[in-house]
Amino acid sequence: VHEAAAEFDREHSVSRSSPMALRLAEIGERVGQAASPPDYPYSFTLVNEDVDNAFALPGGPVYFYQGLINSLGDDEHQIAWVCAHEITHIRQQHAIRRIERAIGASLLIELALGEGTAADVAGLVGSLSLQHYSRDHEHMADQLGCRWAHQAGYDATAAIAVLQKFQEIQGKEPNDFEIMFMSHPGNEDRVNVVKATLEQYGISGAYHP
Length: 209
What we know:
Blueprint lengths: L1 H10 L2 E2 L3 H16 L8 E5 L6 E3 L4 E5 H6 L4 H16 L2 H19 L5 H12 L5 H17 L6 H15 L14 H15 L8
C-alpha cells in the first residue's frame, strides 16, 4: 500500500502543506477520530487537479481532488462527509477484499517464488483501488459516513447536497465521472437511502430538516 501511495504521488500533483491541504487534513483527521476504532493511520492528501473525485487506498491514505472541493463550494461539511465515506471503505476493508479476490492464487505464487515485484503489487493495488465499489459497499459508506461526520461535529445532512452535486456532475461528465460515484447504484437511490439513514439516526440539519 505504501508503494502504491508513493507511485500515485510521483505521477500526480499532490500537496500536504498548502493551506487547503492542511485544512483538508484537519477535517479528515477529525472525522477519522470519530470513526475509530479501528485506529487506522488515516492520511488526507490534496491532489491539485481539476477532477471531481476522491478515493482511498487500503490501510489509511485518502486522496481528495481540488476539482471536487471546488464543485462542493469548499463547504467543510460536504468535504467532511466525503472523507467519512472514504474512511468507511477503509475501516470496512472494502478495497482489501476486492484486491484479495482479484490477485488470486497465481500472483501470490509468483510473489512467493520471487517472480513478482513490489512495483507489480503497487500497480495492482493502485489500479484496483480506483475501481468502483459494489452497490452494498457504496450504501454502507454513505450510511456510516453520515454517522462519522455527525459524531465529528459536522452537519451530516450535507451528504444530500453532495449526492445531488454528483447527479449534476454526472449529467455533464458521464464518461469521466465513474470512479467513486458510479451511476450504479443510482444517485437518486443513494439520496433516498441517506435520507432514511438520517431519520433513523435522528439527525437533522441545513440540508434535511
